[in-house]
Amino acid sequence: MTAHYDLAIIGTGSGNSLVTPDFDDKLVAVIESGRFGGTCLNVGCIPTKMFVYAADTADHVTGAARYGVDATLDGVRWTDVRDRIFGRIDPIAEGGKQWRIDGPNTTAYLGRARFTGERELTVSLDDGGEAVLTADQVVIATGGHPVVPPVVEQSGVPFHTSDTIMRVDALPKHMVVVGGGYIACEMAHVFSSFGTEVTILARGDRLLRHLDDDLSERFTEIARGHWDVRTGTEVTALETVGDGIRATLGDGSTVEADLLLVATGRAPSTPDLHTDKAGVELHDDGRVRVDDYGRTTASGVWALGDVSSPYQLKHVANAEARAVAHNLVHPDDLRAMPHDHVPAAVFTNPQIASVGLTESECREQGLRYTTKVQAFGDVAYGWAMEDTTGICKVIADPATGRLLGAHLLGPFSSSLVQPLVQAMAFGTTAHELARGQYWIHPALAEVVENALLGLELDAD
Ligand SMILES: Cc1cc2nc3c(=O)[nH]c(=O)nc-3n(C[C@H](O)[C@H](O)[C@H](O)COP(=O)(O)OP(=O)(O)OC[C@H]3O[C@@H](n4cnc5c(N)ncnc54)[C@H](O)[C@@H]3O)c2cc1C
Ligand SMILES: NC(=O)c1ccc[n+]([C@@H]2O[C@H](COP(=O)([O-])OP(=O)(O)OC[C@H]3O[C@@H](n4cnc5c(N)ncnc54)[C@H](O)[C@@H]3O)[C@@H](O)[C@H]2O)c1
């Protein structure tokens, strides 16, 4: 029997929020092959930031002496940290699943979906069975999954990805991280602050290479003070040694550890979706091809979030879901996916946040621009914190005074960046933002105010 629905949603991350009151009198199929709530809730943003907060707390203790406050870190109860986090998260995922199972107009399919025709899905159910369903509209919200390089996969050594690392039973003594991006830098911070010795193996010459050069260079230098950072290196072989692993690097050197974390990017979850059966085209990198409104190349099939987006960020997936939720029921009044001025933060040590263009992007685009770099240590709250490395770099168009980009490295950067995001979103000029409002003295936000005031604009 083929069941028919008004709407079928594949994936309960951001896809779960599509079941709006507009569908109260309609039939909705919700299909999920993993934990309800998707990456962010179960293995992404939320647990990582809960671990990061605990790691920051440990760092406050170990760093207290510089303020004349002597304190020692007596220990980190890893399983207590872990269980507090997942004790809070797991019931939410379970509750979300029950809500969809019991929902008056939703049918939950627990299993893996694939297209078997136009707007027709076959679900390999977790209980071993199979179900076929069709729908007037289908939304692909299957997110992404960790990429594991062949050298790791083919070696047969045990390894972790972000999907598993947060649930390990004990803190490793020594951990090797392959990759130098978001997950590598956030996890290195967590584990090293809890007492694990961390070695990072990065292919490039710097960590977090997507950042403005001033930040990635500075961050890599700081990271070398916390962790054993090996840049410009590749893993050529891996083997199991006792309970741990040994990695051989391009220069023939080796590094041994009791745990291997692979953090080499995430790929859109399309390989087993059989999108070709539904007329849904993919980009070369596997992302579903969508137009500005989230429409795929197949009529009535939509996509959103990591599976199709140019960004792999939850606030973007949420914004795209809001647009698609509207578009599903307003075909004559479509809303575009909001992709302007997308900010991002890396919750490592120190925190990093950015929005807009980097200086090299401004150069490459031939833009006329001016920059100002303000040190956290030059404002009163920065003195209080004894900060010696933080910077706020702002980039503006000198003719219009509009911000082109903003890049922060230092405590609370993920929050400090927000007025800069707001200025870019609403077209406020740098000096309007700085002079048109009060900035509380002596709050850390004065670093942003001073950076803005320091920009040399044509109008001044
Ligand atoms: C460790 C980590 C930390 C992160 N931290 C941040 C952060 O701090 N801030 C931020 O903005 N972003 C962060 N991200 C990125 C963020 O988690 C993702 O951008 C976001 O969750 C993507 O949401 P989504 O709805 O597109 O996909 P997902 O949340 O991944 O949802 C997809 C769902 O589809 C299901 N699924 C897949 N294929 C099928 C199928 N064939 N059939 C049925 N179900 C299927 C999956 O099981 C999953 O539940 C982080 C990611 C990771 C991995
Ligand atoms: N705070 C946040 O917003 C946050 C946190 C975690 C993850 N995320 C999202 O999840 C995505 C995935 O995170 P990630 O850290 O896995 O990816 P990433 O793209 O940030 O970093 C991947 C790293 O792996 C390296 N790499 C790629 N292939 C490799 C290979 N074969 N061998 C060795 N190194 C290789 C890259 O050079 C890069 O340093 C991020 O791009 C981000 O969008 C966001």
Can you walk through the features of this model?
With 460 residues, the protein is α/β, with parallel strands linked by helices. The chain has three domains: 2-146 and 267-329, FAD/NAD(P)-binding domain, CATH 3.50.50.60; 150-264, FAD/NAD(P)-binding domain; 350-453, 2-Layer Sandwich (Enolase-like, domain 1), CATH 3.30.390.30. Helices cover 29% and strands 25% of the residues. It contains 13 helices and 20 strands. It has helices spanning 38-42, 45-62, 78-102, 150-153, 182-193, 213-226, 314-329, 359-364, 380-384, 413-416, 418-426, 430-435, 446-453, and strands spanning 2-10, 28-32, 106-117, 120-125, 130-140, 144-146, 174-178, 197-201, 228-230, 235-241, 244-249, 254-257, 259-262, 266-268, 301-303, 344-346, 352-356, 370-375, 391-396, 403-409. The strands form five sheets. It has a five-stranded mixed barrel. Helix 5 (182-193) links the parallel strand 7 and strand 8 (197-201). The longest helix has 25 residues, at 78-102. The mean pLDDT is 98. The structure holds flavin-adenine dinucleotide (FAD) and nicotinamide-adenine-dinucleotide.
Tags for this model:
FAD/NAD(P)-binding domain; 460 residues; 13 helices; five-stranded antiparallel β-sheet; nucleotide-binding; binds flavin-adenine dinucleotide; alpha/beta; Enolase-like, domain 1; five-stranded mixed β-barrel; binds nicotinamide-adenine-dinucleotide; redox-active center; 20 strands
